[in-house]
Amino acid sequence: MYDLTLGQIADIVGGELVGNAGSVISGISTDSRTVSGGDLFCAIVGSRIDGHECTEDAMASGAAAALVSKKVAGPHVLVPKSPDDLDPVIHALAKLAKHVRNLMLNIEVVGITGSSGKTSTKDMIGQVLSHAGKTHAPAGSLNNELGLPLTILSAPADLRYLVTEMGMRGMHQITHLCSIAQPSIGVVTNVGHAHIGEVGSVENIAKAKSELIRALPADGVAILNADDHRVSAMRGMTQATVFSYGFSAEADVRAEQVAINSNGTYSFELIYGGNRVATSIPMLGEHNVANALAAATVGLAVGMELEDIAAALTELKQMSKWRMEVIQLPKDVTIVNDAYNANPESMSAALETLASIPAEGKTWVVVGKMHELGESSKQLHEQVISHANQLEISNIVAVGESADCYGLLDSSDSAAKSVWLPDFASATDYIVNGVNSGDVLLFKASRAEQFELLAKEIEDRLRKKWSQP
């Protein structure tokens, strides 16, 4: 972070200073357990924990001061009341991040949005750009009113590329995030049904996603998915230079000769401007080839050579948890943990990935509810089951009280292909008893379902099962 004094921070956020105005703040923390010396501890009131109750612990761990919406002991800046339902400290962090962004000179800021694939694409872009200059693209899904300011505030001062992720739960949210980050390059991965329950239609989702493209400066670059007609239509919404990517022959940057490898990863030819280079990605899923094309296009936009980009793609690593994360177990059993989040489009891509993985045994998809789908929820859930059946997935297991929306019947019959089970305990027993050598299991659900816990419990039980004499 750029060093600021506590007095400067109070002025920037319009807050009341208690303590030494000259104290230097060198970092930001929202978790008292991970505070470093010189940090400003931000006391956010959450659904389970009020950060103000943790300020004493944060100070004991070395925090220089706190950013608060209630008076506390010790040095702090008391921020003004919020103009809306958002936490006042989060509003203050947005002001602080915008100030720090204005201090950043000679920097390219990449903004990424889309209904699915944002985080994986962000991780890939960060890794590709790191071959061209110092890059900051923190792992995880820091894509909202809190996460984006934290991305900016955690960036080092000597940066060349800053990669930010922009999510939305309603209209104008991306416009707000763009006002903070001021992106010069904007990437839109796709438009799908995620959050349709909050904005009413796919057309409104497209309009909300286009806010990123509309916010770009005339000398900026818009990078659009040529395979999504709603994204391609954003070409006319900006004066920025437009690059397209995808599998389409019309895409500026495209993949040809796409082939699945024996371990489920992909090789392909990367093509741009009449030049082609053979490359590969060490990741599952053809949708990750598309994400890699977006990353390659960003690399080209900043002046990287096609050969250097192709080499960078072969070295990609999984940076963020629970996104096509592969876990190999004894008996050649594979768990694919894609449990971070789910919407109809990402669920479809995950199912197709599962079906494409070479497996000696059976394939299992373990699904939970997809949230925020509005009136179309039941229909969209039933389409998932239909798609899984079309792909001839061997076993379909819907888990959770809310997962009855998939339309499966409860069953204790271990031979049943499709089953709904009401809780993690019953699902764990059913799956552990049913899995055999060579099976592949995919876990996917919306974030609120916490399917990473189910995947871990089943992983541990299977390891224990096969470690016994």
TrEMBL record:
<protein>
    <recommendedName>
        <fullName>UDP-MurNAc-pentapeptide synthetase</fullName>
    </recommendedName>
</protein>
<dbReference type="GO" id="GO:0009252">
    <property type="term" value="P:peptidoglycan biosynthetic process"/>
</dbReference>
<keyword id="KW-0132">Cell division</keyword>
<dbReference type="GO" id="GO:0005524">
    <property type="term" value="F:ATP binding"/>
</dbReference>
<keyword id="KW-0963">Cytoplasm</keyword>
<dbReference type="InterPro" id="IPR005863">
    <property type="entry name" value="UDP-N-AcMur_synth"/>
</dbReference>
<keyword id="KW-0436">Ligase</keyword>
<feature type="domain" description="Mur ligase central">
    <location>
        <begin position="112"/>
        <end position="298"/>
    </location>
</feature>
<dbReference type="Pfam" id="PF02875">
    <property type="entry name" value="Mur_ligase_C"/>
</dbReference>
<feature type="domain" description="Mur ligase N-terminal catalytic">
    <location>
        <begin position="25"/>
        <end position="72"/>
    </location>
</feature>
<keyword id="KW-0067">ATP-binding</keyword>
<dbReference type="GO" id="GO:0008360">
    <property type="term" value="P:regulation of cell shape"/>
</dbReference>
<keyword id="KW-0547">Nucleotide-binding</keyword>
<dbReference type="InterPro" id="IPR013221">
    <property type="entry name" value="Mur_ligase_cen"/>
</dbReference>
<dbReference type="GO" id="GO:0051301">
    <property type="term" value="P:cell division"/>
</dbReference>
<dbReference type="Pfam" id="PF01225">
    <property type="entry name" value="Mur_ligase"/>
</dbReference>
<keyword id="KW-0961">Cell wall biogenesis/degradation</keyword>
<dbReference type="GO" id="GO:0047480">
    <property type="term" value="F:UDP-N-acetylmuramoyl-tripeptide-D-alanyl-D-alanine ligase activity"/>
</dbReference>
<dbReference type="InterPro" id="IPR036615">
    <property type="entry name" value="Mur_ligase_C_dom_sf"/>
</dbReference>
<dbReference type="GO" id="GO:0071555">
    <property type="term" value="P:cell wall organization"/>
</dbReference>
<dbReference type="Pfam" id="PF08245">
    <property type="entry name" value="Mur_ligase_M"/>
</dbReference>
<dbReference type="InterPro" id="IPR004101">
    <property type="entry name" value="Mur_ligase_C"/>
</dbReference>
<dbReference type="InterPro" id="IPR051046">
    <property type="entry name" value="MurCDEF_CellWall_CoF430Synth"/>
</dbReference>
<keyword id="KW-0573">Peptidoglycan synthesis</keyword>
<feature type="domain" description="Mur ligase C-terminal">
    <location>
        <begin position="323"/>
        <end position="447"/>
    </location>
</feature>
<dbReference type="InterPro" id="IPR036565">
    <property type="entry name" value="Mur-like_cat_sf"/>
</dbReference>
<keyword id="KW-0131">Cell cycle</keyword>
<dbReference type="InterPro" id="IPR000713">
    <property type="entry name" value="Mur_ligase_N"/>
</dbReference>
<keyword id="KW-0133">Cell shape</keyword>
<dbReference type="InterPro" id="IPR035911">
    <property type="entry name" value="MurE/MurF_N"/>
</dbReference>
